[in-house]
TrEMBL record:
The chain crosses the membrane at residues 12-33, 39-61, 73-100, 112-134, 154-173, 215-239, 251-274. This is Olfactory receptor family 56 subfamily A member 5. GO terms for cellular component: plasma membrane. It is found in: Membrane. The lineage of its organism: Eukaryota, Metazoa, Chordata, Craniata, Vertebrata. GO terms for molecular function: G protein-coupled receptor activity; olfactory receptor activity.
Length: 325
């Protein structure tokens, strides 16, 4: 089976393409390592099930448990929804390639839609972390004003801002890619339709396309990171002033889960950026694998971290399980 698949991949890669317009793309995951794709699919599928199950459990718990109907948990629900959509956009297609050799993906309906969701929802996650950092800043630095500032209306406005800002500013990325002429090769050497992997197959100049993604991506992610750092700087400054016994530990404990989530998100993203910059010094399959894992590891770990570290969520899950069983 492996030999047949390898011959099929070699045949696809050796095709002499004409100048006819491209109607679909072919996703070639790890062309040099076909023999261990089935083994890789096992941990990926387990992580996918863990991510979907953990986030669904968290959403159901927050929905059913009245004590969790607070702004902080609504923001956590938004983060879980974004994680689930990212997982469903990327991982099922990757597993379909590994298990059933379903490499084709339609030109517009699937590929560029996947590209839009990946770019927009990734920046939406970053913006949600920024809003959550502001929530923690108000809770610790202005505790008496917290109920009047962080309200349900604030969460609604924040959610609209997260979706509108990132959706509108990332929309041009797939639009610019879709307007390019694809008249030659249609093989994407990646598991997913990333902008750079797709646009470099075009016959046209892609300089503006690459420049827009670079500027938009780093403007959105960079501004969020700066505001998160500022929020935690003020939090740390306020915590160091606390004199009461045990108050510092309690204050830091309220930020611990959120800080760990940001660390997961930024660390995986940073590793992905570094590997892409050092592409010539590392095997080309490494950035592809990291790109897939970036859409899987944070979604799998985020609800677990909050479930383990937040007593209210832990009690809510236990309460629901006792009610069901």
């Amino acid at each position: 089976i492996i030999r047949k698949k390898r011959k099929k991949i070699e045949h696809i890669l050796s095709i002499n393409y004409s100048t006819a317009p491209v109607s679909e793309f072919l996703l070639i995951c790890f062309p040099n390592y076909q023999s261990w794709q089935h083994w890789l699919s096992l941990p990926l599928s387990l992580l996918f099930l863990l991510a979907m199950g953990a986030n669904a459990t968290l959403l159901i718990t927050i929905r059913l448990e009245a004590s969790l109907h607070e702004p902080m948990y609504y923001l956590l629900s938004l983060l879980s929804l974004l994680d689930m959509v990212l997982c469903l956009t990327v991982i099922p297609k990757v597993l379909a390639i590994f298990w059933f050799d379903l490499r084709s993906i339609s030109f517009s309906a699937s590929c560029f839609l996947q590209m839009f969701i990946m770019n927009s929802f990734l920046t939406m996650e970053s913006c949600t972390f920024m809003v959550m950092a502001y929530d923690r800043y108000v809770a610790i630095c202005h505790p008496l004003r917290y109920p009047s500032i962080i309200t349900d209306q604030f969460v609604v406005r924040a959610a609209i801002f997260v979706v509108a800002r990132n959706g509108l500013l990332t929309m041009p990325i797939p639009v610019l890619s879709s307007r390019l002429r694809y008249c030659a090769e249609n093989i994407i050497k990646n598991c997913i339709c990333t902008n750079l992997s797709v646009s470099k197959l075009s016959c046209d100049d892609i300089t503006f396309n690459q420049l827009y993604q670079f500027v938009a991506g780093w403007t959105l992610l960079g501004s969020d990171l700066i505001l998160i750092v500022l929020s935690y700087s003020f939090i740390l400054k306020a915590v160091l002033r606390i004199k009461a016994e045990g108050a510092m530990t309690k204050a830091l404990g309220t930020c611990g889960s959120h800080f760990i989530l940001i660390l997961f998100f930024s660390t995986v993203l940073l590793v992905l950026v570094i590997t892409n910059l050092a592409r010539k010094k590392i095997p080309p399959d490494v950035p592809i694998l990291l790109n897939v894992l970036h859409h899987l590891i944070p979604p799998a770990l985020n609800p677990i971290v909050y479930g383990v570290r937040t007593q209210e969520i832990k009690q809510g899950i236990i309460k629901i399980l006792k009610y069901q069983f």
